[in-house]
């Protein structure tokens, strides 16, 4: 069940899950930047990829500033949302799985998909696992966003995050298989308590490497990783059951 937001941009009523437009992006220190306004618009309303640079929730009010002009000036600087930022997992999915994104390290120098994979792995030594889990849920038609605000790896949405709240929080476990006791640990019960307050379910992902030895710097290593999951309904978990 998805909890829809009370108000959102009416354009999101035409939102679609899968993008189809060829796009170009530019490598940055920790992701890929999309500058073309048409590409930004397409990725926003077709799959809800990325976030705008400088995008943040506006908790500032006029009481924080000496006058209204100062408030407007601040918002113009902080929320200057002209370029779209893609995380490395989002960019690699668009470039490799969907074959829609071409990535440049400069205005003219185009990266091959193998070069980009090596950059991703150098940036994050857990990129192989992070990407495998990301793709696992994307292939099941979930919108997958960072779960940093909730202390997890990913948050799953059934629609655009502009339209609905997240359904579930994803944690990547450091073991291969599920055990019933996984949901009974102190850490798990704390996670369930937190998620029940924000109306999200709990999902644990388990990683199994089919092959013992492989080169993580080769994208073909994705063939040797298997992702499984186990979920638990955490929403309203602490409420008493009606008899």
TrEMBL record:
GO terms for cellular component: cytoplasm; tRNA-intron endonuclease complex. Residues 127-207 form the tRNA intron endonuclease catalytic domain. Gene3D superfamilies: 3.40.1350.10, tRNA intron endonuclease, N-terminal domain (3.40.1170.20). Residues 24-117 form the tRNA intron endonuclease N-terminal domain. It holds the Pfam family tRNA_int_endo. InterPro entries: tRNA_endonuc-like_dom_sf, tRNA_intron_Endo_cat-like_sf, tRNA_intron_Endonuc_cat-like, tRNA_intron_Endonuc_N, tRNA_splic. Its EC number is 4.6.1.16. One of its GO terms (biological process) is tRNA-type intron splice site recognition and cleavage. It catalyses: pretRNA = a 3'-half-tRNA molecule with a 5'-OH end + a 5'-half-tRNA molecule with a 2',3'-cyclic phosphate end + an intron with a 2',3'-cyclic phosphate and a 5'-hydroxyl terminus. GO terms for molecular function: nucleic acid binding; tRNA-intron lyase activity. Belongs to the tRNA-intron endonuclease family. This is tRNA-intron lyase. It comes from Strongyloides papillosus.
């Amino acid at each position: 069940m998805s909890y829809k937001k009370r108000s959102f941009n009416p354009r999101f009523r035409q939102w679609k899950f899968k993008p189809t437009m060829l796009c170009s992006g530019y490598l940055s220190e920790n992701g890929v930047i999309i500058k073309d306004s048409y590409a930004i618009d397409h990725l926003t309303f077709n799959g809800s990829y990325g976030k705008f640079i400088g995008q943040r929730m506006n908790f500032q009010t006029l009481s924080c500033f000496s006058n209204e002009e100062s408030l407007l000036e601040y918002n113009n600087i902080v929320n200057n949302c002209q370029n779209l930022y893609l995380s490395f997992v989002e960019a690699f999915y668009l470039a490799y799985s969907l074959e829609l994104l071409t990535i440049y390290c400069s205005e003219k120098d185009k990266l091959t998909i193998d070069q980009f994979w090596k950059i991703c792995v150098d940036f994050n030594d857990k990129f192989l696992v992070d990407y495998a889990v990301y793709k696992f849920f994307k292939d099941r038609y979930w919108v997958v966003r960072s779960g940093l605000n909730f202390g997890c790896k990913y948050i799953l949405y059934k629609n655009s995050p502009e339209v609905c709240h997240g359904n579930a929080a994803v944690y990547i476990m450091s073991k291969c298989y599920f055990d019933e006791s996984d949901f009974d640990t102190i850490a798990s019960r704390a996670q369930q308590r937190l998620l029940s307050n924000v109306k999200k379910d709990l999902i644990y992902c388990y990683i199994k490497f089919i092959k013992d030895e492989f080169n993580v710097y080769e994208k073909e290593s994705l063939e040797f990783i298997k992702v499984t999951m186990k979920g638990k309904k955490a929403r309203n978990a602490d409420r008493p059951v009606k008899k």
